[in-house]
Amino acid sequence: MLKRLLPLILLFFYVALFAQKPQPFLPAAGIKVMTYNIHHGNPPSKDSLIDLEAIARVIRAQSPDIVALQEVDQFTRRSGNVDQAKAIAEQLGMHYFYAKAMDYDAGAYGQAILSRFPIRSTAVRQLPSAPEFRGEPRILGEAFIQLPNGSTLRFGTVHLDAQKSEANRLLQAKALQRILAEQKTPMIIAGDFNAIRSSEAMKVLDAAFTHSCTTCAFTIPVLKPNKTIDYILLDKRKTWSVVSHETIQETYASDHFPVVTVLQ
């Protein structure tokens, strides 16, 4: 009897052992994440010229899996009535999501997410501003992305307030912290935070996120860079292994350097 049951007993222990083994969140090869403020495709040295091919070349050279874009036009007069997120995504063969922040110049202005992996759902989340504020509305563009191993990644692109006063950025940072806590799905938020690392807004975000860099290189302006305001932030509720982090010293396509990290 025992000999007959032995294969079943071994099978039971094997299944139990396998079931207890945690499955990796990221694919074995890891993922490469990029953030890039593209200045609506206008090289700062070229007045009103729109050069989306240059933006696509910069992104292609890094071969990222997921990209957060800021300052993206959609059907504006200044950009030749082009859906910039769609045009860039098509050049790169990537999925995309456009997150409108505001009406602008007969079209829209906002952010975008590009992904090599399928985008399962998206949302545009309004970020708060002080009641007396008269500037641009700010948003979080959010996408749930299905990774090759079946895991789901929550990914966001942001462009926080650029005013000299830090009041709005602080409100927006606290809102991002609350949005993170709404779901358990691990999240990465990347973008132009318009805030240096020691600012109060970034201190708020530091409570909930880990940076992909320790000593973060300057990201703006491209000719004489003097401050870091573009970041990739990693949900602290998950353990991330940062294989590499790089600020790409590309000086033509935009007024910001793109930032790239590999997570494994």
TrEMBL record:
Instruction: Tell me the ranges covered by the Endonuclease/exonuclease/phosphatase domain, including all copies.
Output: 34-256
**What organism is this sequence from?**
Sphingobacterium griseoflavum
What is the name of this protein?
Answer: Endonuclease/exonuclease/phosphatase domain-containing protein
Domain of life, per UniProt, equals: Bacteria
Q: What Pfam families does the annotation carry? A: Exo_endo_phos (PF03372)
